Amino acid sequence: MRPSREAIHGQWSSRWAFVLAATGSAVGLGNIWKFPYITGEHGGGAFVLIYLACIVLIGIPIMMAEIMLGRRGRRSPINTMRHLAQEEGRHGFWRYLGWMGILAGFLILSYYSVIAGWALAYLVRTGSGVFTGLTADGVNNIFYSLVADPERLLAWHTLFMVMTMVVVARGVRSGLERAVRYLMPLLLVLLLVLVGYSMNTGAFQQALVFLFSPDFSKLSPNSVLIAMGHAFFTLSLGMGAIMVYGSYLPRHVSITRATFTIAGADTLVALLAGMAIFPIVFANGLTPGAGPGLIFQTLPIAFGRMPGGEFFGALFFLLLIFAAWTSAISLIEPLVAYLVENMRMSRVMAATLAGMVTWLFGLGTIFSFNIWSGDRYKLFGLTFFDLLDYLTVNIMLPLGGLLIAVFAVWAMRRESSVSELGIGDGRLYRAWRFVTRYITPVAVSLIFLHAIGVL
């Protein structure tokens, strides 16, 4: 029997609203910023093929499990895991899985907001023609002058956090759902416009060959592990966001269909981002393997050279902002839900408190690039930002995803997951259970061991 509890925060009005929200959570800087540069670093088509296989074998099974746990618990991740552990007769330590997810989301947003602030700054700079005619050294000087100025970084970080808090404070339907109903279609339109522009650069065919023609000689074992890791991280798994969004999911909505739709949309955005970016890179004689600087140091060179570069460059950074915004509201939502449930706060007060604490913690990331960048401020050779990034991405998220899979298929009774997934006990359910029970934990363990340097 399914439990009769309902979410006190409300629920999505439809399956489509949930798909848009969860896709917005998944689509972020990882799709527009990270996927193109790691694809460029690891040879293109072969890496993309491995990445797609990992989405199917790692991303989709864990996303189904996380949505299932969220909808069955109907609360913030902490309270969901406490309720489900009691319901399944398991030890109460499972609630710490919820705590870890909320903490990971909070820590990620504290530095994610700073990086999103860079996109806000670059929207203004690109649209005003600052990069027009600049050399690579000129573009690099603009970037380094931005990150070296804590006051400017603080202003952009503050603006982005206010944008995020305003949406979350309005609630599930009036805030989260309304925002993604506008932002996600606009994001797709902007991306398609940029792809259309890239088709006329003269290097679109070269970019397609690079993206979709696999050359396995360019792959290394390290490339495979990186593809596995990105397939896991790109879907916002293990940080409480998908679990809390699942808690607002109506009973009649198919978790399986929704998960495949979300994973497909997230992957499509990543591929379209590559189709928008690589033709511009190739047409301007730049390297696709430029690394993390591809967006903020390499692409502005191209935008400064091309006809209409001010307009299309501004569109690109607007796209980046929309992607970051939809992810940010999902990162803070688990903490806000917990404060509403356990501290008896209004949603406005909870969003304000969560946002202010996140903003305050983000100061550490800002200072990492300037006044705290010296060796005396480093721990194990890492700046504050590097330490947060390593702790969350390399340890907390893989561990969270692994524990979600373990609870869903080892700690949870079979009849509970059959009931909640709503797909019966046939081949599809047995395939999901087998993959989540045996293949996914091994894959996520490999990601974790690679991330901490064991592999």
Q: How would you summarize the topology of this molecule?
A:
Elements (H helix, E strand, L loop, with lengths): L14 H12 L2 H13 L3 H29 L3 H11 L7 H33 L8 H12 L2 H20 L2 H27 L5 H9 L8 H13 L7 H6 L8 H29 L15 H7 L3 H34 L4 H22 L15 H28 L2 H8 L5 H25 L4
Can you walk through the features of this model?
Helix content is 74%, strand content 0%. It is mostly helical and 455 residues long. The longest helix has 34 residues, at 309-342. The protein is globular, with a radius of gyration of 21 Å.
Task: Please provide a brief summary of the model.
This protein has 455 residues and is mostly helical. The protein contains 18 helices and no strands.
CATH topology: Amino acid/polyamine transporter I
CATH class: Mainly Alpha
Could you state the order of secondary-structure elements as H and E? HHHHHHHHHHHHHHHHHH
What general outline do the C-alpha atoms trace?
Answer: globular
Q: Give the name of the CATH architecture.
A: Up-down Bundle
Tally the helices: 18
Number of domains: 1
Secondary structure: number of strands? 0
Strand content: under 5%
What profile does the largest beta sheet have?
none
Oligomer: single chain
